[in-house]
Amino acid sequence: MPFPRLRADLTRSMNRRRLYARINALPDSTVREELLAIAQRHDENN
Q1: Which domain holds residue 39?
Q2: What is the total count of domains within the chain?
Q3: 12-37-46-5 Cα dihedral, nearest 10 degrees
Q4: What is the pTM of this model?
């Protein structure tokens, strides 16, 4: 795997973990559940 592609994949996975951590840090609410659903749908499509 070429280095730029490896770096892009690593950056994408770090950003994904950061996004889920920020969503999970929110208080329990419908908004949090909606954000999780949106993030999961986006992950499935990519």
Answers
A1: 3-45
A2: 1
A3: 10
A4: 0.79
